[in-house]
Design brief:
Largest sheet of chain B: none
Mean pLDDT of chain B: 90
Order of helices and strands of chain B: HH
Number of strands of chain A: 0
Number of domains of chain A: 2
Shape of chain A: flat
Largest sheet of chain A: none
Oligomer: heterodimer
Low-confidence stretches of chain B: none
Order of helices and strands of chain A: HHHHH
Low-confidence stretches of chain A: none
Chain lengths: ~130, ~60
Amino acid sequence: MEISQIVIIGLISVILALMLDKHNPEWSMYIRIAGGMLIFFIIIQKLEPVLEIVKKMSEKIDVDFVYIAIVFKVLGISYISEFGAQLCKDAGESSIASKIEFAGKVMIITVSAPVMLALINIISEIIP
Amino acid sequence: MDITIVFKIAAVGILVSVLNQVLVRSGREEQAMLTTLAGLIVVLFWIIQYISDLFKTVQTLFQL
């Protein structure tokens, strides 16, 4: 099962990070990055069918695919900014982490602007 | 893309910290700092390559 594989990899990288943390902490940062990426690459095979299912469902209830694409974009942006921000927080640099999170939020707003505009148009049509 | 990456990085990290201690004890602080720097840069190249793979995968997956 993948979940046990993931947990084992997480534990091993935590132990190695702690071991290396005593003498020079930058190595434990490398181990954290490597462990995080490893777990992501294992779970990525499971994520593709999930996205296909979401696409099929959206076609069934004839939602315009543009909106689903925007949802996926927002997911991708939030995942990458979360990945970076958590790593910075682990290293103790919460100021850089908050900058990354802020940049991610701005990116999400720029990506989802058309959805908001469409919503406002619909509302303005309903209320004469 | 398996656990060997983490072991490789840990091995290089341990090796460099041991070398660092040996060089510092034998009075050569400059070489100690240089070996630590060299180890860091080597692992940085590996990590950068893996991170670019990760971000490419995310981009293709979410159509970013």
